[in-house]
């Protein structure tokens, strides 16, 4: 690199022009701009950069495809779940309807069931009476035989 011009660099421009200092206010200050060297990069760097960008693009495409597949899977799962819940809802409605029908039939049969309970109670009472009558008749028969033997 070439060494820059002599002096402190204050007040003199790099391009050889004199910059305004704080004491002279009649002109606007000149600002220096830096410029980069525009040398072309070496071909192997260009090749490596292109390859890196291609590999990164392939990686990102793969990630996006994987994410898309995940969303498709979730969408299918949601559709299946919706169908299953719809079936379950229909089944629950059918069960509810059947249960309501059974309750209505039970209410219709309730008086007959009460009559059956009443008849069962009467039969039980009659059975007890028959048992007592049987015991009494056996005692009576035993007494009659005893009297007959005398």
Estimate the strand proportion. under 5%
- Major sheet: none
- Specify the overall morphology: rod-shaped
Summarize the helix and strand pattern as letters: H
Number of strands: 0
Percent of residues in helices comes to over 70%
**Poorly predicted ranges:** 1-22
Number of helices: 1
What is the averaged pLDDT score?
Answer: 85
**What's the alpha carbon Rg, rounded to whole Å?**
56 Å
Structural class, by secondary structure, is: mainly alpha
For the termini, the CA-CA separation is: 162 Å
Pfam family, one: BLOC1_2
Coiled coil: 85-129
Family: Belongs to the BLOC1S2 family.
Protein name: Biogenesis of lysosome-related organelles complex 1 subunit 2
Write the layout of secondary structure elements.
Layout: H1 43-149
Please explain how this structure is put together.
- This is Biogenesis of lysosome-related organelles complex 1 subunit 2.
- Keywords: Coiled coil.
- It comes from Mizuhopecten yessoensis.
- The chain has 150 residues and is mainly α.
- It is 71% helix and 0% strand.
- The protein is built from 1 helix and no strands.
- The longest helix is centred in the middle third of the chain and has 107 residues, at 43-149.
- The radius of gyration is 56 Å and the shape is rod-shaped.
- It starts with 42 loop residues before the first helix and ends with a helix.
In summary, what is this structure?
This protein is mainly α.
Write a concise keyword list for the protein shown above:
0% strand, mainly alpha, 150 residues, rod-shaped, disordered N terminus
């Amino acid at each position: 690199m070439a060494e820059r011009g002599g002096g402190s660099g204050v007040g003199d421009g790099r391009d050889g022009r004199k910059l305004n200092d704080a004491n002279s206010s009649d002109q606007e200050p000149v600002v220096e701009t830096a410029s980069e060297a525009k040398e072309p990069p070496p071909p192997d760097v260009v090749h490596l950069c292109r390859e890196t960008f291609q590999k990164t693009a392939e990686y990102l495409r793969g990630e996006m495809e994987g994410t898309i597949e995940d969303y498709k899977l979730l969408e299918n799962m949601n559709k299946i779940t919706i169908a299953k819940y719809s079936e379950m809802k229909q089944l629950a409605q059918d069960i509810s309807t059947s249960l309501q029908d059974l309750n209505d039939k039970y209410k219709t049969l309730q008086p007959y069931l009460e009559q059956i309970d009443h008849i069962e109670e009467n039969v039980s009472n009659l059975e007890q009476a028959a048992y007592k009558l049987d015991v009494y008749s056996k005692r009576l028969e035993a007494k009659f035989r005893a009297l007959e033997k005398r």
